[in-house]
Amino acid sequence: MSTTPAAEHFKPKKSVALSGVEVGNTALCTVGQHGNDLHYRGYDIHDLARQASFEEVAYLLIHGELPNRATLNLYQQKLQSLRFLPKAALRVLEKLPAHTHPMDVLRTYTSVIGALMPERENPPVAETRDIADKLLASYPSALLYWYHFSHHGLKINLETYQNEPTQASYFLRLLHRHAVPESWIRAMQASLILYAEHEFNASTFTARVIAGTGADIFSAITGAIGALRGPKHGGANEVAFRIQSSYSSPDAAEQDIIQRLQRKEVIIGFGHPVYTISDPRNEIIKQIARQLAEETGQQLLFQVAERIEKVMKEQKNMFANLDWFSAVAYHCMGIPTDFFTPLFVMSRITGWCAHVIEQRIDGKIIRPSAHYTGPAPRPFIPLDERR
Amino acid sequence: MSTTPAAEHFKPKKSVALSGVEVGNTALCTVGQHGNDLHYRGYDIHDLARQASFEEVAYLLIHGELPNRATLNLYQQKLQSLRFLPKAALRVLEKLPAHTHPMDVLRTYTSVIGALMPERENPPVAETRDIADKLLASYPSALLYWYHFSHHGLKINLETYQNEPTQASYFLRLLHRHAVPESWIRAMQASLILYAEHEFNASTFTARVIAGTGADIFSAITGAIGALRGPKHGGANEVAFRIQSSYSSPDAAEQDIIQRLQRKEVIIGFGHPVYTISDPRNEIIKQIARQLAEETGQQLLFQVAERIEKVMKEQKNMFANLDWFSAVAYHCMGIPTDFFTPLFVMSRITGWCAHVIEQRIDGKIIRPSAHYTGPAPRPFIPLDERR
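ok -> structure tokens follow
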């Protein structure tokens, strides 16, 4: 996350390499084209988050257009049919102990399924889209099968939950193993839509660099998950929650954050390498977080988050990004903190796969240069003559 | 691999994105600084390949300097002690069927070991170097345990081979399960040295993009393996062998290659995105391949490869890169073709890890931009109104 104040508009920021350098083409997304807006294939993120289901957005990104009702029904059935896990994948998940980082679980699952059901060389794009749908459909299965097995010794029967209509309800049902309020499902849908795509961020760029060598899509996604794991990228929503939940009152939060800023600490969840005025997704997720906090009696958490937002604006002219209030919303739905970044995976898998398909059309290997800072050419000294 | 003739020196090549763009600092390597030379931390690749062992070069890259005799002895002992595999990793490897791509085996192994023995957050660099040494030491164990189990139903006892003095002899012994000629071990050493490091190539750049988000080193290496898997990158040496082994004589090869060039086909194993005159590693690996071919009665393979090299020079003014004669050398040592790229991993792991350590010092997230080619902003049409 950048610490540059919003005043310095459109200048490349020192803490971000390649900022503003166009390294390829995309038809998927514009970020901040008119200051602080976000569009997926031309559709405004506000329209999508408020009026569409996540499955419509997934179809838009992976398959190219918004589906009509009949196509959407078929797509939902397809995703349901792809939620199963191959037996060998179940056995591998059982070998990962309870202390495993859930992002390592998804990274390993992706690599294993790529080993078990590999992509063909030079496949038709329809096959690659099938793989994208398989990964999208089965990530909740993989994460929560591992979770219940490693934490509770339970081998859950995935078939019991297979017919949940949406990815949002499937994930929440698998996690809680009982029905959840409709408002949670709607909130989860919106959150998944907001996280689905964001141009050439670090994890998407990783997927494209890997795809550029002609590698299979599983390799590209495995790498993207690794990149998203970092605290400067997808890991940010987990760090945001740890900050928010550490205060007993909004006043205590304000006092401490001001002190941290005086010590020049970076507060994760604020600012953005591309947006300069605000994050267009913040307004939507903040409203969702407020409502869920009221419904679940988590008002303190919301109030602390909102106060820190105010302090960051006043003190540093910095805005909350998507991660900040996502953390509040996820916590209200009873989601373990270290599942926050895996939820990002379950959404961004749509954008990543769409980018892999685009990179293959582009056909370029991505191979930059380095600035050399090491020793000048020097003579080789044979082993036994070295000090 | 580029198809640009050598005449167009130093022009960015269309088929390579970011060519010539400096995206970070490195003290590890210069590629073609004076036309067609290669240095690791200031040492000429010719000196290293002819006078050093692979362990000396691994130590140079990961730990910073060439070791003296005492340090080298300790380092070899350390690598021997790190060759074991955790039990859970053995069980996972047993779940990967015989048809698994060996690169998928190494990708999965890296992800699994990162799940089982994760890197701490913000670790001291010494701990990251220990992980680098662990991966370096254990890749032959992982690949060949899986190989003998899935192909021959054998659970090999890794301890039997643990005291082999070098990575080269450990790999060859584990593969063949009997002693191999000293000339093979020396050839393998040189080959591992030649493949160890090459600046900001696509897989190394992948590792750096992942490391730039603050992710753990296992995530970075898992992604790098995925990138290396592509036929435009590490997969090239496998493709090269498939070309070389398809001809019954040098004349037949010449005839067919000329026809392919007339059809504008790309011949993998020739040209390079950075070198423009020749690949400095070619001379070394060609000499090794010639000698091994004589010793093992594979002269036809070498003669075909050499004839194609001549044709490519005459017809297209293109030079053989490292992959071309590596393919001949590996085949002469009885290495299955789909282990060629995994051998690249077993060597390049040294450069990758050194780059991850450098990227962390750099401290930058890598986040480029895209050129948008998609639809203009358009109104959202509710589901039931869509065609």
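Chain A touches chain B through 112 residues (CB under 8 Å).
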